Amino acid sequence: MAESGECLGTVPEHERILQEIESTDTACVGPTLRSVYDDQPNAHKKFLEKLDACIRNHDKEIEKMCNFHHQGFVDAITELLKVRTDAEKLKVQVTDTNQRFQDAGKEMIMQTENIIRCRIQQRNITTVVEKLQLCLPVLEMYSKLREQMSAKRYYSALKTMEQLEKVYFPRVSQYRFCQLMIENLPKLRENIKEISMSDLKDFLESIRKHSDKIGETAMKQAQQQKTFSVALQKQNNVKFGKNMYINHDRVQEEKKEIVLKHAFDEEDENEEEVLNVQDLVDFSPVYRCLHIYSVLGDEESFENYYRKQRKKQARLVLQPQSSMHETVDGYRRYFTQIVGFFVVEDHILHVTQGLVTRAYTDELWNMALSKIIAVLRAHSSYCIDPDLVLELKNLIVIFADTLQGYGFPVNRLFDLLFEIRDQYNEILLKKWAGVFRDIFEEDNYSPIPVGSEEEYKIVISKFPFQDPDLEKQCFPKKFPMSQSVPHIYIQVKEFIYASLKFSESLHRSSTEIDDMLRKSTNLLLTRTLSSCLLNLIKKPHIGLTELVQIIINTTHLEQACKYLEDFITNITNISQETVHTTRLYGLSTFKDARHAAEGEIYTKLNQKIDEFVQLADYDWTLSEPDGRASGYLMDLINFLRSIFQVFTHLPGKVAQTACMSACQHLSTSLMQMLLDSELKQISMGAVQQFNLDVIQCELFANSEPVPGFQGDTLQLAFIDLRQLLDLFMVWDWSTYLADYGQPASKYLRVNPSTALTLLEKMKDTSKKNNIFAQFRKNDRDKQKLIETVVKQLRSLVNGMSQHA
């Protein structure tokens, strides 16, 4: 009963648990199931049994329900399949209807948007009309401003801008167009600046184009003043001027003055009035631009721009053309542009306040002056025509005088002229070097013949020659100098004239001019003429006769130097006794040339002797002499006689030195011929033949070919040969060996080595010519003697070498 009671109590509890499991979420079943195990033991078995019973009940109920609803389910499925086809048709119809509805709605939306837009525009137009009535005065004033800008009434436009900013813009400042106008006003001011600046640029371009004409006009005025001043100076200094030009030189110089005077009148020959700078250039743009920038408060930037642009123009003006140095027109164009530039700057300086200052013009001029000097120094270095350099000098003087008249310092330009003067002198020196060369080439190096009194006076008028003996001679007669002497004298005077032309208008004293002339003349004599003379002397085609005439010519040119000094004195009116007067160095020049010619005479004379000696054809194995001297030697002696007759016009010492030098050279050449290493054998007959030639040389020296020698001085040139030949011909070896080294020795001038060399040559000959010498006692004795002498001579030579 108790167990049955427990079972009855447990069953309701299990049913409750099953109900909770069926009604509770699966995730929360855990606590419920745990309660099954927390109850009495074996309770879970009973619960499982109860659960199985419950499952079986549910399966029975499900089976009953399925059996009951199965036919309905099948019918519902069949109906659902039928409905699906109709649903698809309905979906197509709904989609089509929706598309037609959307298309109809778009057109309505567009019309609606147009209506909204029109309503907004209408509202905006109403608002704009209201605001325009407020803004119209502002727009009218701005339109007025634009009209003023178009009419180039820039000053009124600036006033209108000021009124807009102070009165009208504050009324409509909230509108964007007002802000744009406010923002545009600075641009308009800049436009006014740019427009006025454009006018200024046109002005700058105009003055650049007219710089040539402006400079030409200013230089013309300066030239007229200069011409007037020169005329007064010449009138007050007639004595200085009368000696400056003679004959055609005066005419040529006057022509050059006329050309220079009218150089700037080629385009204005018919103008009676000289135009000034205001007549050539309209300065109103620069005044107007300066005023506008002053109103705008930007006067400083305008001044800076003007000065910057003018500096650029100055650099362009100062930049010369590459071919400027080729013609005087190139230099003239260069100078007129520069003068025009600075004349304009000087005008701006005096008619405006602050735009250009004196400090600015001075700075600009100093910069330009440095550039001008550099350009002239570079381009003038290319000039090789003295006339062009002279015209350049005249242009520089006019250029300097013109700018000096406007207050610009020009001292550096005159300093440059002294550099150009040196260059001018160098060009003259080169030109006269060619003139001298031509004179020397054309000279025949013969005394000048004159056949009448008229011809004599013509020569005297060209060259200051005085010789009472020549005057007393009857015609025809000859001057001692050749034709080149008067020509050179004339050309030296022409050079002085040419050098003098550059000194004009340099504002220098007569003393300075005299010093310049003397220095340039000294350069001509000591460098140019001296070089030409030395080159002439060294030329191969100049023979002995020409060299003699050159010596005579230099003697007369040296004597004429004092007349050149008098000539310069007459030109400059500066006495030679003045302390600082430079002397001419012509004396040393002609002395040096004469000494060079003398040395060349000695050289050529020796060369001629060598040519004759090379013709010698001795038979060194000759057994007996011919009895007469060699032909080449007689020809040489005849040549020397004729040459020394020409030397009679030379100074005595020159002729004596030449004669002594020739004899000594001949003696040395003959000695070398005997001692030649290639000569292996010499016979006694050859020595005797050689002795005949030496006798002719001694006879020539004894005949006194040139007067002035004392005693047998000239014969001493052959003393070495004579003693050597006497020793061998007399065969006086005992005397030679016994007296060797004694001052009174008969063969004092015979050197042991020389005697040994010649003796060995004769020894070899004796051996070959005397094949049977060993069979003759005399020949054997002679051969032994030669061998003995050779041994003694070798001992002497060895002793000399050891002593040395």
UniProtKB/TrEMBL annotation:
Highest taxon in the source lineage: Eukaryota
Residue ranges annotated for the Exocyst complex component EXOC6/Sec15 N-terminal domain, each copy included: 50-219
InterPro entries linked: EXOC6/Sec15, EXOC6/Sec15_C, EXOC6/Sec15_C_dom1, EXOC6_Sec15_N, EXOC6PINT-1/Sec15/Tip20_C_dom2
Source species: Octodon degus
Domain Exocyst complex subunit EXOC6/Sec15 C-terminal span(s) in chain numbering: 413-761
Functional summary from the UniProt entry: Component of the exocyst complex involved in the docking of exocytic vesicles with fusion sites on the plasma membrane.
One GO term of the biological process aspect: Golgi to plasma membrane transport
One Gene Ontology cellular component annotation held by this UniProt entry: exocyst
Keywords on record: Exocytosis, Transport
Name recorded for this polypeptide: Exocyst complex component
Family: Belongs to the SEC15 family.
Gene (name only): Exoc6
